[in-house]
Amino acid sequence: MSDVSYPKDLKYTKSHEWIRVTGDVGRVGLTHYAQDQLGEIVFVELPEVGRELKQGEVFGVVESVKAVSDCYSPASGKVVRVNERLVDSPELVNSDPHGEGWFFELEISDSGELDNLMDADRYDKYQAEEGAH
Amino acid sequence: MSGTGYIYKREPLIFELSAPGRRAYSLPSSDVPACDPAEVLPRDQLRREPAALPEVSEVDVVRHFTRLSQRNHGVDIGFYPLGSCTMKYNPKVNEVVAGLDGFANVHPLTPEDLVQGALQLMYEMQTYLCEIGGVDAVTLQPAAGAHGEFTGVSIIKAYLASKGQGHRNKVIIPDSAHGTNPATAVIAGCETVEVKSDARGGVDIESLRAVADENVACLMLTNPNTLGLFDENIHVIADIVHRAGGLLYYDGANANAIMGYARPGDAGFDVVHFNLHKTFSTPHGGGGPGSGPVGVKKELADFLPVPVVGKDGDRYYLDYSLPKTIGRVKSFYGNFGVVVKAYAYIRSMGPEGLKRVAEDAVLAANYLMRKIARDYHLMYDRICKHEFVASGVWQRDRHGVKTLDIAKRLLDHGFHAPTVYFPLIVPEALMIEPTETESRETLDAFAEAMARIAREAEETPEKVTGAPQTTFVKRLDEARAARQPDLAYRGDLPKE
């Protein structure tokens, strides 16, 4: 369906979020597959700075022309920064999901949890199967 | 000349038709002394300037809205296979009955002795719905399906609390459910727990067992579900939930598929809602309002909203005496006019007729499914009930044509599009519900249109991705409409 290559420096969840870890901070976003499934995104609800999230906890929702979906945090930790640009330009999630379309950053409290996530190769296979129904 | 050229012109807004001082109606001069609103209304309630209302004549108004109505698609214009919505034909005899003076013009506060006929109709409607649903008592108050859900879950919560089970706060909902189910649970103060569907499209029994614990208030289930599939495990499902101490809620959105053949109450459901505007042929969409009566088993009857209609000898009365009632959920007695229309439908069909409705709805859906399966993927390829879900994944993966494009292209063929991208568990979903009232010729014409679109997707995909071409407005920019909604007319229009 799509010929996007998933960045090697990201880790991925089964619910189609990614996290890029730099030191003890993780930047979180939605994958190309997720934005493609959702279609044009019209609204993003971001978590509040300072909120403590657990891995797998709902941090917000994205609304597209098709559906409203929960988004799940790939790791536990405290939200330290959110991408304010998404408030006025939610389409960044569609145009650059692994870059400019990031959602928030958190201070990772348990880096061991990251081992539960998929690397790019595994996620690529996983999303191909998900889309192949 | 057909004389319908006006239909292809841009219809101005009613504001653009306005001319200063033009009036639709000359009111007789007032026979009471005029008073200044500023003297009788609170200051903060006063307008600073008069509202900018359009000033038009009666004929301007009639022509404007008649022209707009001619651009609309309705079930009286053409086939309307909007899955899950049950856009069945609305028999006109229902309107005749609902228009009778004693029904249409009765004041809701008229003394009971002067409205015995209206009360009798409501009482009998409660009785019929009890019989059709396999339940013991019914309220006609809820104004729509989701309102019925809220009423039903509120009754369940109140019942559980009365049994010392007030801590039960979990509502189990399958991943194929209508979005109203989780919304209802949250509004009623509960938490939702999702259960997955199994490979056949039913509730995954092991997943259900895993979440059915001492905190479960109820399971909300639509059967047949939004895939149009009947869950044959319903007795097992009911047993698991009841053993855990929870109740079963039946979402009646798809009751037209089983009407007269299976009763939710017999399958173990404790609370049932009906969509009169789906199952019992009253208008909905723009023609609403809806009506969502709720039926319950005996143990829950004391918790129904008041009043219900009772009968004492030959006399009908409004019964406010239920001691444990959850209270009112709607002013007066619900959408009475809708109840009258549904009553007319039930009486004109009769028990055998209602069974035929279910048979024909299921037959039509299966006939159409087999034809459409030649060109479109079926994720759950088994006999369906009143609707089925096809998928546009072949068209998407092979030709870059998405389900939204297919839906838009159907408009060029004169059909209303099916429900798209729902249920969420089917990618590129096309949810198609033909209903029992469509002829074989109509079903064939729709199937032929779907086949042609599949060929176009292959040979000339730009025809599909550029659709619609023959409608008054072309492809709408849904994303921009949602991102930058501009809903108020301020005396200017954007340049076209």
List descriptors:
heterodimer; A: 133 residues; alpha+beta; OB fold (Dihydrolipoamide Acetyltransferase, E2P); six-stranded antiparallel sheet; three-stranded antiparallel sheet; 4 helices; 9 strands; B: 496 residues; alpha/beta; Aspartate Aminotransferase, domain 2; Aspartate Aminotransferase, domain 1; 3 domains; four-stranded antiparallel sheet; 10% strand
Summed up:
The complex is a heterodimer of chains A (133) and B (496). Chain A is α+β, with helices and mostly antiparallel strands. Chain A has helices at residues 32-38, 85-88, 92-95, 120-130, and strands at 11-12, 17-22, 25-30, 41-44, 52-53, 58-64, 68-72, 77-82, 104-108.
Backbone shape of chain A:
globular
The coarse silhouette of chain B is globular
Low-confidence runs of chain A (pLDDT<50, min 5 residues)?
Answer: none
CATH superfamily of the largest domain in chain B: Type I PLP-dependent aspartate aminotransferase-like (Major domain)
Question: SSE order of chain B in H/E notation?
Answer: HHHHHEHEHEHEHEEHEEEHEEHHEEHHH
Mean pLDDT of chain B: 94
- Class computed from helices, strands and strand pairing of chain B: alpha/beta
CATH architecture of chain A: Beta Barrel
Structure class of chain A? alpha+beta
Largest sheet of chain A: 6 strands, antiparallel
The residue fraction in helices of chain B comes out at 25-40%
The low-confidence parts of chain B are none
Quickly name the level 1 CATH class of chain A. Mainly Beta
Given the structure, what is the number of helices of chain B? 16
Instruction: Write down the oligomeric state.
Output: heterodimer
